[in-house]
Amino acid sequence: xxxxxxxxxxxxxxxxxxxxxxxxxxxxxxxxxxxxxxxxxxxxxxxxxxxxxxxxxxxxxxxxxxxxxxxxxxxxxxxxxxxxxxxxxxxxxxxxxxxxxxxxxxxxxxxxxxxxxxxxxxxxxxxxxxxxxxxxxxxxxxxxxxxxxxxxxxxxxxxxxxxxxxxxxxxxxxxxxxxxxxxxxxxxxxxxxxxxxxxxxxxxxxxxxxxx
Length: 212
Known about the structure:
The chain has helices at residues 41-54, 99-112, 185-188; strands at 5-7, 10-15, 22-24, 31-35, 61-64, 67-70, 74-79, 85-87, 90-92, 118-124, 131-134, 147-153, 156-162, 167-173, 177-182, 189-193, 203-209.
């Protein structure tokens, strides 16, 4: 982990791609745990290919500052029959679990010590696909939601920003990694996957959650 540096007015901490296999991130008002090798390399390759090929990807519309626009990524929503999710003006009805997703969910539940009944899948096709600043703090996620985020495919930078303090944490999320955001993280921090001009391949991200 590199020393903090100034990024505009924010103090930024960079968590590199290499490091301890399991690492708790030093985030005030938040609880984040990074598992760099939650899934073995060969298994991660197979999971990526299966999900890329078998998922009925869609480009959803989202509402941003009162405007309805096409999301800069492809998505799919899976879960238990009653796990309906609403975000950014979009209402998602869950597709039924597949054997592959249930296997990934079981691993995420093991490491997070939590139960999940749904997953939002995002496919980032290239560096211009992204997700903007937001918190996963919708009422149906409960008071202190646990979000387990699995990354497959190309390495992308994931950034968290404190809502009230000039603090940022940037994480290089690699193939087969799992980031767990828990406790009060969603109340005090926002996160994004920014665009990049660097040539990058496709990435699939799965964020497991519990709709209550």
